[in-house]
Amino acid sequence: MQHENLTQEVYDLILRRSCTFGQAVSSLDIDNTDLLPVTENLLAESRIIEIESKNGKYYRAV
């Protein structure tokens, strides 16, 4: 699947609902190595945050 703006797609996904890294990979049908720099950038820009829960780490839009 071709993604025109992966950063925006990831942010939109997390904005709709909090999700784990694995859920984002699966939902967007992308590779872990493609998602990692996107999530790191969104975290650095404070657009998303990580939340610890008993089920693991979730990303949530700020």
Description:
With 62 residues, this protein is of the alpha+beta class. The protein has a single domain, classed as Arc Repressor Mutant, subunit A (Orthogonal Bundle). It is 52% helix and 19% strand. Strands 1-2 form a two-stranded antiparallel sheet. Helix 1 crosses helix 3.
Main features:
62 residues; alpha+beta; Arc Repressor Mutant, subunit A; two-stranded antiparallel ribbon; 3 helices; 2 strands; globular
Q: How are the secondary structure elements laid out?
A:
Elements: H1 6-16, H2 21-28, H3 32-44, E1 48-53, E2 56-61
Antiparallel strand pairs: 1-2
Helix pairs in contact: 1-3
Helix content: 40-55%
Specify the overall morphology. Answer: globular
CATH class: Mainly Alpha
What's the number of structural domains? 1
Short synopsis of the structure:
The chain has helices at 6-16, 21-28, 32-44, and strands at 48-53, 56-61. With 62 residues, the protein is an alpha+beta fold.
